[in-house]
Amino acid sequence: MKLEALPWLILFLPLLAAGIITLFTLRNKAVSATLSIGAIVTGFVLTLALIKFGGWEARELSVNWLSIGSLTVDFGIKLDALSLMMLLVVTGVGSAIHIYSYGYMHDDPGFSRFFACLSLFTFSMLGIVLANNFLQMFIFWELVGVSSYLLIGFWFEKASAADAAKKAFITNRLGDFGFILGILIIFTIAGSLNFSVLQSANAIAVLGGSATLAGLLIFCGAMGKSAQFPLHVWLPDAMEGPTPVSALIHAATMVAAGVYMLCRVFFIFTPDALTVISWVGGFTALLAALIAVQQNDIKRILAYSTLSQLGYMVMGVGLTAPQAGMFHLTTHAFFKALLFLGAGSVIHAMHHEQDIWKMGALRKKMPVTFWTFMVGTLALAGVWPLSGFFSKDAILAAAQHHAHEHPITGWALFGLAVFVAMLTTFYMFRLVFVAFFGAAKSHGVDHAHESPGVMVWPLRTLAIMSIAGGVIGIEALFAGALKPGGEHPHGLLAQLVYPFQHAPVAALSGLAAFAVGLFLAWKLYWNAKEDLFTVKFSGLSKLMSNRFYFDEIYEATVIRIHDAIAAISDWIDRWIVEGFCLGLVRGGTDLTGRALRLVQTGNLQTYAFLFVLGVAVVLWFVLGK
Amino acid sequence: MRAVFAIPYPLSSILAGKRMNVGLEHYLIVSALLFALGLLGVITRRNLLVMYMSLELMLNSANLTLVSFSRFNDNLNGQVMVFFIITVAAAEVAVGLALIVALYRKRQSAHVEDLTSMKY
User: Fold this and answer.
1) What is the mean pLDDT of residues A522-544?
2) Contact of A212 with A206, CB cutoff 8 Å
3) pLDDT digits (tens, 9 = 90+) for A604-625
């Protein structure tokens, strides 16, 4: 088989699986799961083959899709280190999650439907990763929105799940509106949508004064998908979906799409736009970490943790270090998928109990889950030499480096990032101490047991990746694609010590933040029966556990205003469009119809007479006069 | 009398007691009379069968016109046409009568006043 066919296969296999499952095998669980898992695992293997035989260098394949006037759109595939690495992450982590779902969803009546949706989602995400132009990316962008809607609302009979699905979709649409406006600006001024063409044409110079505006509008799309402030509200609610979905959305796919897109079109952002991006990212990181400190639902803690880490990545991109953002995205994909699947394992064992204050002592009951969860936690907290340390350090180093030129922004964001790192350790160890250590806090714990092999093995695999992910040369690959020219260490040992030589301040601050966070968590939550933080800082705690009232604020402002506009539109539609315009046309037609129908007497002879009369009139016109 | 209105040619010669010279006009007048009678029958008679017969009368008046034109113009096309019309009319009569019989069996009536289900 020719190598060019591989990317197309990787892209379309999941769609094929989704189609076949929906059309033919909804009743057959085993076949459906096999198709879906087979599609993504094959995708993973083919990606490996593609990299083995094709290498990492950039290339493009495309077919002309549509061409109207000056608008030519290709349906293309852009392969370079960025997309290939992302392809590996999506198919690799996706495979683990697919296999895990086979165990987690086994008794669900919608089993086959679930796998069809998963495959559709995978297809959409692969489309974003492989797209070589803005329009194609936007289409798959929307497809991800739709399929995430289907997955979050998978248990649609639950009102909260249906609402969460709507919220996710609509919030994303808000961001996408900005995204498409940005695309339109770029097309109008630059005349092309192709990434490579724009990059080689020096898009910022071509766009001139509107470059910053276009960049910020494009960033709106990323704000929606990657759940950045102020569009972050949908992500925690998306926890209503099944846990594998949370893992998929949070770890490897949907939220990563925003950061990936920022890196893909990094050449379009002006320094001003990047400053805004870095501050939005930093603020999101801080806000979400603060909220995570006072959540009690195991999945919600992880959700806010994801938000916070996404803030890190976006901040990394904003600090002109897209390779650091992508590096953190990749390692985060490993350990966040691990943490979510671990949480799923716990929830599965606890019969769908998600409150950490009703767990405790799970360390003995579920050893594999505990150890893998511990690895994920340490990686997320940034402990040397786990993967999270290196990627987080890359972002801290980027902030420090940025401070040479922009001292205020650079040092402020550096301090913020270190503080958030401390908070991260704090809330993650709060979760671990409360849920896995101490005494059992409910009877559910007594019946808990380790999950089946199909769920445990993905955990083990992801745990290995979480440990090793930082030192297998991922950063160098991204740097090669996004910021060529820099020097990067080669060899295991060199990579292990590189952060301490390259930017010791950043590395040591990161480790210090971990130590402080761990100490605080140990002080407050080791063997804790109740949340001391809530008792001591009740006001602050209330603010945090209520998510700083963002949902309520939006309810009172955005949604109210929206309701008012909707009511006015409804009035105009009901009375002016429908009542006046349609009423007039409809009423007029009705009246004419009523008058004309009197002609239809039903008497044959009247018709005959009128017919003859008609003929006579025609004859008179033609012959007479 | 002449001063009031002019009597058209064939009638005027008949009234004047001249020897009749039968021409195309005579045939056409007979044909027109037949056609008018048929039309009157179709419009005024209430019985479907009678209406149908009147219809045939109109058809035959047209035939008469064709034949007379054929005769006076020395062109046989008109007569050929009439043969076709007679043939088709025979078939049409069969269908029409069958419809009327079927209608009568269903409604027990062949009067047009009773067949107004298409009203409004």
Assistant:
1) 75
2) no
3) 888 888 899 999 999 999 987 6
For residues A338 and A452, what is the distance between their CA atoms, to the nearest angstrom?
16
**Inter-chain contact A602–B116, Cβ cutoff 8 Å?**
yes
How confident is residue B2, by pLDDT bands cut at 50, 70 and 90? Answer: very low
Q: What is the pLDDT of residues A105-124, one digit of tens each?
A: 888 888 888 899 999 999 99
Residue tagged 């009569």 (tokens)? B93
In sequence order, the β-bridge partners of residue A66 are: A73
- The reply to whether residue B43 touches residue A602, judged by beta carbons under 8 angstroms, is no
Q: Are A409 and A275 in contact (CB under 8 A)?
A: yes
Do A147 and A257 form a contact (C-beta atoms < 8 A)? no
Mutate to test the interface with B, among A598, A604, A607 (most CBs of B within 10 A): A604
* Lookup result for tokens 């007979």: B30
H helix or E strand, kind and range, residue B49: helix B48-73
Question: Looking at the DSSP assignment, which residues form a beta bridge with residue A79?
Answer: A59
A235 contacts A306 by C-beta, under 8 angstroms: yes
- The residue among A494 and A194 whose pLDDT is bigger is A194
Indicate whether A377 pLDDT > 60: yes
What CA–CA distance (Å, rounded) separates A614 from A385? 99
R_g (Cα) of chain A, nearest Å: 29
Residues of A within 8 A of B113 (CB-CB) are 603
SS3 A105: coil
Helix (H) or strand (E) holding A63: strand A59-68
For residue B57, the model assigns a pLDDT of 93
Q: Which of the listed ranges A99-108, A432-441, B56-65 does the model predict with the highest average pLDDT? A: B56-65
Mean pLDDT of B13-37: 83
How many beta carbons lie within 10 A of that of residue A504, not counting itself? 12
Alpha helices per DSSP H over A352-503: 362-365, 367-381, 387-402, 407-436, 444-447, 453-468, 474-482, 492-502
* Distance between B113 CA and the closest CA of chain A, angstroms: 7
Domains of chain B plus CATH, in order, are: 24-111 (1.10.287.3510)
**CA–CA gap between residue A293 and residue A286 (Å, rounded):** 11
Which tokens is A464 given?
Answer: 């290995």
| A607 to chain B: closest CA residue | B43
Query: Is pLDDT at A246 greater than 90 in this prediction?
Result: no
pLDDT of residue A15: 93
- Using the predicted structure, report yes or no on whether residue B4 has a pLDDT greater than 60: no
**Token pair belonging to A294:** 């006072």
Residue B1 pLDDT exceeds 60: no
Q: Which residue of B has its CA nearest to A605?
A: B43
Contact by Cβ (8 Å): A148, A121: yes
Residues above pLDDT 70, as percent of chain A: 98
Asked if A93 and A252 touch (Cβ cutoff 8 Å), the reply is: yes
How many Cβ contacts (< 8 angstroms) between chains A and B?
31
| Beta-bridge partners for A70 | none
Q: Which two tokens stand for residue A245?
A: 């979905």
Rounded to a whole number of angstroms, the distance from the CA of B20 to the nearest CA of chain A is 30
- Encoding tokens for residue A8? 């197309």
Least confident of A250-259, A273-282, B80-89: A250-259
- A59 phi/psi in degrees, rounded to 5: -155, 165
